[in-house]
């Protein structure tokens, strides 16, 4: 079926697109009740240094809907962005993470960093940015234990607004990671102006270490660049010892991926089994 998009323009509209649209509408319809129905929770994925010591965690959102089951953030976050629901979700994540982080730092030490993902839309929403800055000033957000992850594309689309907010974050003593680095729209000249602490190499490159010379070269280049700019560099999505060895040999100082730990619920962070697993990675 071809769908008329006005002005005599036609685009192909296939059955699978129709199915996709139906699913999107379904997700968008269920999303508004997720918070009040208590359907969200956070899981945490460890980050380790080159010696295998846990230095931080990334908070990742999970949603279970009674009818739709588990829905991945890769699916519902873009829908939340498009349906103007992202800011309430972000606020929920921040408040919830800040309730849980003290337990994590009590257990893993006061230097532990827990990162919270922000959406592009959050950076240009004053309700969100003011809420975060207020949280940092009032102590509601434990500045020494928190870090925000923003995606490169988010940053590039609103460069001046985003950069002003990030400058404020830095002034409040907060750490910032640039997520999914290498896949966005980066211009090298911008990177020196970035108000960030850490570059996160995207999983796309990490997963091809050992199989793609090109991805290996890009990975080495990102690590070199981060070092020259005095930034930390974190690799996400590490699944094999080969990838881990390659990354540490080339100077990557923070490692994250299923090889070390999958994202797990808060209480599991404190279980003996999990501790043993994390130690095994050492
Ligand atoms: P991200 O921030 O780049 O997070 C990394 C994703 O890779 C996570 O997927 C994580 O579970 C997955 N991952 C980590 N290690 C491995 C590995 O070794 N192998 C493989 N195959 N995957 C690995 P997840 O949790 O499904 O999240 C997907 C994306 O959704 C995130 O990408 C982030 O962009 C977004 N997201 C998740 N939670 C939040 C949130 O609270 N707020 C916002 N705004 N976005 C979120
Ligand atoms: Mg992230
Ligand atoms: Mg990432
Ligand atoms: Mg990624």
UniProtKB/TrEMBL annotation:
Residues 24-277 form the EAL domain. Coiled coil: none annotated. This is Diguanylate cyclase/phosphodiesterase. It comes from Alteromonas naphthalenivorans. The chain holds residues 387 to 668 of 668 of the full protein.
């Amino acid at each position: 079926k071809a769908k008329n998009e006005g002005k005599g323009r036609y685009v192909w509209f296939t059955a699978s697109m129709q199915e996709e649209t139906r699913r999107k509408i379904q997700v968008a319809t269920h999303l508004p009740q997720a918070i009040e129905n208590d359907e969200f929770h956070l899981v945490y994925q460890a980050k380790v240094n080159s010696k295998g010591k846990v230095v931080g965690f990334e908070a990742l959102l999970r949603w279970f809907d009674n009818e739709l089951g588990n829905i991945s953030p890769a699916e519902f976050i873009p829908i939340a962005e498009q349906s103007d629901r992202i800011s309430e979700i972000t606020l929920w994540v921040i408040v919830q993470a800040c309730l849980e982080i003290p337990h994590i730092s009590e257990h893993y030490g006061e230097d532990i960093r827990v990162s919270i993902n922000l959406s592009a839309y959050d950076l240009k929403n004053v309700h969100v940015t003011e809420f975060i800055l207020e949280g940092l000033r009032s102590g509601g957000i434990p500045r020494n234990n928190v870090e925000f992850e923003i995606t490169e594309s988010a940053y590039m689309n609103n460069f001046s607004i985003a950069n002003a907010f990030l400058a404020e974050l830095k002034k409040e003593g907060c750490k910032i990671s640039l997520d999914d680095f290498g896949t966005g729209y980066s211009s090298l000249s911008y990177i020196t102006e970035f108000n960030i602490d850490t570059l996160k190499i995207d999983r796309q490159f990490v997963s091809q270490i050992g199989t793609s010379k090109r991805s290996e070269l890009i990975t080495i280049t990102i690590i070199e660049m981060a070092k020259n700019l005095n930034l930390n560099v974190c690799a996400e999505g590490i699944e094999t010892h080969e990838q881990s060895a390659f990354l540490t040999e080339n100077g990557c100082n923070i490692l994250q991926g299923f090889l070390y730990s999958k994202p797990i619920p808060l209480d599991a962070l404190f279980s003996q089994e999990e501790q043993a697993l994390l130690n095994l990675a050492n």
